[in-house]
Amino acid sequence: MTDYNVVRVGELTAWDEIDGVAPGKAFVEKDLAAKYMGLSVNSNAPGSQSPFWHTHSQHEELYIFITGRGRLALDDDVIDIEPGTIVRVGTGTWRALQAAPDTTEPLRWLCVRAGGATLEEVGHDGAKDGDRPYPWAQ
Amino acid sequence: MTDYNVVRVGELTAWDEIDGVAPGKAFVEKDLAAKYMGLSVNSNAPGSQSPFWHTHSQHEELYIFITGRGRLALDDDVIDIEPGTIVRVGTGTWRALQAAPDTTEPLRWLCVRAGGATLEEVGHDGAKDGDRPYPWAQ
Q: What would the mean pLDDT of B44-50 be, rounded to a whole number?
């Protein structure tokens, strides 16, 4: 059975206000009907910060920062966020972030979470078909 | 124990050529020491396509398209890719993509994969701390 779902969240600037609310935050996993992962799409205006610290007991999270600059606190550590910074946060670690006050571009980021079973390496559950024609090849 | 890892892949334009190779593709989960997820950072020049169709028997994948336009084939379906298109692909579904030939901007995208255990809803394994001061608050 062909099994997929599509959500369209728009250009990066559309992330700044989602459903009329800024800072934009949208949990899209339900619309995607995702089984094994959760995904949020986020934008923080310069100077804004997480509404609270949080941690997870089971879920690993990947923070993927696309635009803007800021700081991410991880327990007692603080790291700089820049475009392309990707951070894995393991269970039990508390985290909070701030978009740098002295910047103009929103901090736009994705957070993916999963947990419960370790992942096989790339390719170990995959299959390739090098002979099937692509639908755009005429 | 504070548990995190950081990888820095740079600005979107840095994704176009990774380790001197275009189209850029980097699997970053090992550097992140990710347990439950895999993550690749990708850029396809206009007109380029997947080197082959592929499918997974266990892993669900989320394709997150950031810039550019193109098409994603899912078995016999083909959907349009635009900035902000997010697609969950379930197990057993074959997929391949093409960056539109008639565009100038690279198709830059992320692919996250996980599998093996269903995910609890947001907040069901989380904890908040609304009292802890932020390290950037003086």
A: 93
- CB contacts of B129 in chain A (<8 Å) are 52-55, 94
Q: Torsions phi, psi of B15, nearest 5?
A: -75, -15
Cα A105 to chain center, whole Å?
Answer: 18
The model's pTM: 0.88
Cα distances (angstroms) measured from residue B10 to each of A11, A77, A126:
19, 21, 29
For residues A95 and A55, is the Cβ–Cβ distance under 8 A?
Answer: yes
ipTM, interface predicted TM-score of the complex: 0.88
Residue A114 CB burial class (10 angstroms; 0-12, 13-18, ≥19): buried
Q: Return the residue of A nearest to B51 by Cα.
A: A130
B22 CA: distance to closest CA in chain A (Å): 18
Average of per-residue pLDDT across A70-89? 96
Q: Count CB neighbours of A94 within 10 A.
A: 19
The answer to whether the CB of A50 falls within 8 A of the CB of A63 is no
Token couple for B3: 């548990």
